[in-house]
Amino acid sequence: MEKHHLGRNGPLVSVVGLGCMGMSGMYGPADRGESIATIHAALDAGINLLDTGDFYGMGHNEMLIGEALRGRKRDDIVLSVKFGALRDPAGNWSGYDSRPAAMKNFLAYTLKRLDVDYIDIYRPARLDPDVPIEETVGAIGDMIKAGYVRHVGLSEVGVDTIRRAANTHPICDLQIEYSLISRGIEDQILPTCRELGISITAYGVLSRGLISGHWQKGQETGAGDFRRMSPRFQAGNIEQNLALVEELRTIAQAKKVSVAQVAIAWVAAQGQDIVPLVGARRRDRLTEALDSRALQLSFEDMAAIERAVPKDAAAGARYPDAQLKHMDSEK
Questions:
Q1: Sequence-distant (≥ 6) Cβ neighbours of residue 140 within 8 angstroms
Q2: Which one of 53, 70, 143, 165 is least enclosed by Cβ atoms within 10 Å?
């Protein structure tokens, strides 16, 4: 699989990465055996970038990945880990903690759960309003000097924070939502990252399955599924959003590919500095995503996609208002 460097001095990563969050309950129950088989299939296909967070399943996701990586050559894997999100015993979210001492504590547990000696890319999951980004990034830099981390990444932060972080330590990538129906980064964040030589690892490229072509009107979400609270999946919004998918399906059918493949290929076509993270938790969905690499979108195709799904055409915000208020990237 083709590989590119993340940022000016970041690791060499596959042009598609695997986001592992959905394997630990964020979208309802997942099959452990199938999750591990999917990670193995991704690695065997040439994907070397695995993304996780220490709060996914309260450590479950890291232990799952650690189990899947046993027997694999460590240097062949690029592990990207987010930290800082706090949860209570009931699984509720209770803020962020990016203090240097807290970061070192989170990192120690992450290394243990993953059963590795270092993390390739370490990043705060969100901006902690009580801790200057310089302190957090500087402390990660100290962990790089100590050999526990290789690169600093960011997640869901805005232009000012990106610049301040980059002035403190080289940043290899910004992880942020980017898809046909989530294009807010195009105005200021993406140009700033390109100016500073920071790549984008794009999550939500299928908008949590909404624009995968597989979501059905009236489809139920189970307990613990984030989509139960997502504005775009709510009545009054879901109908408009699925109508956009049907417009996209017409284009996909003409090219004899799936809707998901068109959506992933569109993100990948935005530049070599953008790496789509596919959130497959089953091997068949992974295969579908990987096959998107063979899809070449012409200028005419891109124009048709823009007409089918115009910028800002989606109904509903990408997160509930309460969460958007705390997202630096939305300010």
A1: 103, 122, 149, 152, 169
A2: 70
Q: Model's pTM, two decimal places?
A: 0.95
Q: Per-residue pLDDT for 109 more than 70?
A: yes
Angle subtended at Cα 265 by Cα 224 and Cα 51, rounded to the nearest 5 degrees: 45
Catalytic residue among 27, 56, 148, 319: 56
Q: Domain limits at 146? A: 3-330
* Tally of domains in the chain: 1
Is 56 one of the catalytic residues? yes
By the 8 A CB rule, do 173 and 10 touch?
yes
How much is the pLDDT for 223?
67
CA atoms of 78 and 240, how far apart (whole Å)? 38
Task: Flag whether pLDDT at 98 surpasses 90.
Answer: yes
